[in-house]
Specification:
The protein has 11 helices and 10 strands. By secondary structure, it is α+β, with helices and mostly antiparallel strands.
Length: 323
């Protein structure tokens, strides 16, 4: 049996709860939630994983590491897992697209499908160590869509999704990817999350983010492209402000900020940085609008990789089994 998984990547527009260290409750007694955020699953780029009993895997190091981690945690299946071969294809990690989560979830789903076992996606996420902060990728792997991640109260929890909405079918997303991976992961990311911030500033920014999230939700429900574009860009900008001291600005680099500013000057309002970057996103109302933006970006941003036109993924990962 051979199992092939196609898993969507995601865009992350920013945290819903500004990190604060040393506080479990706000001054009014409400519990402090962690992380959360807004994000959308996208059709392209995506992650491909194939697992089976045949030989000839392509030695994808990260996919193989996920497979080994599963075997270690589930020793009752270790012998069967170690007889499986794995093939994987994925974009570069640490580019703001949630590749690590998509890859880990795909390997876990493919592994247990190949063993004729079905595990809930939440359990798959725990086996490959995903969902430590964001819940967009693990829940989006299952369902796709535009997701409002409500975060979690305790570190050991998996994030919960407050609401899932869909983008209109004609809306497009133009990705302007950099050729370099972001350095915002690992210890550097943890340091930014654990830096001291004042309670009053965290409260004020978190309330602003919640207000903007409600505006994003209203615009999506109304299929209002202009309102959605303005509010998602503003949410993205405000979500970056608490990390300005770490990044040297609202965005992860001055180069990213320059690209965002230039695209906005062209009249595209829904522009921002996905996660820690370096991928920049820009919403387009239809195919023609997306094509015009791509052509202009190719001329203006010679240092960037080829623009990608994609759309929201509303189905999550797909599984294809063959014998």
């Amino acid at each position: 049996m051979t199992v092939r998984i196609v898993a969507p990547c995601r865009l992350h527009f920013g945290l819903l709860y500004v990190p604060i260290v040393g506080f479990d409750h706000w001054p009014d007694g409400r519990p402090v939630r962690k992380f959360g955020g807004l994000g959308v699953m996208i059709d392209e780029p995506n992650v491909l994983v194939e697992i089976g009993s045949r030989s000839g895997g392509n030695a994808h190091a990260r996919a193989s590491a996920f497979l080994q981690a599963i075997a270690t945690q589930r020793p009752e299946y270790r012998d069967r897992i170690e007889r499986l071969s794995i093939w994987a294809e994925s974009p570069a990690e640490h580019t703001g697209l949630g590749v690590g989560t998509a890859l880990g979830m795909a390997v876990a789903r493919a592994t247990f499908t190949a063993l004729h076992l079905e595990l809930p996606y939440r359990e798959l996420a725990q086996l490959v160590g995903r969902g430590l902060r964001s819940g967009i990728g693990i829940h989006g792997f299952e369902s796709g869509g535009f997701l409002f991640d409500e975060g979690k109260l305790h570190d050991c929890d998996l994030p919960t999704i407050r609401e899932r909405l869909t983008l209109p079918a004609n809306w497009r997303i133009v990705l302007l990817p950099s050729q370099a991976s972001s350095t915002w992961h690992g210890d550097r990311e943890r340091s930014a999350f654990h830096r001291h911030r004042s309670v009053s500033e965290v409260q004020a920014t978190t309330e602003r983010l919640h207000s903007l999230a409600e505006q994003v939700r209203s615009a999506l429900r109304a299929n209002d492209f202009d309102a959605f574009s303005q509010t998602i860009s503003e949410f993205n900008r405000v979500a970056g402000e608490p990390f300005a001291r770490d990044q040297g600005g609202t965005y992860a680099s001055a180069a990213i900020g320059d690209v965002i500013q230039t695209v906005r000057e062209w009249g595209h309002v829904g522009v921002g940085q996905s996660s820690w970057g370096p991928t920049v996103f820009a919403f387009a109302e239809n195919d023609a609008d997306a094509a015009r933006l791509c052509e202009r970006a190719k001329l203006q941003f010679a240092h960037l990789s080829e623009p990608i036109v994609t759309r929201a993924n509303d189905t999550g990962a797909t599984t294809i089994s063959s014998y």
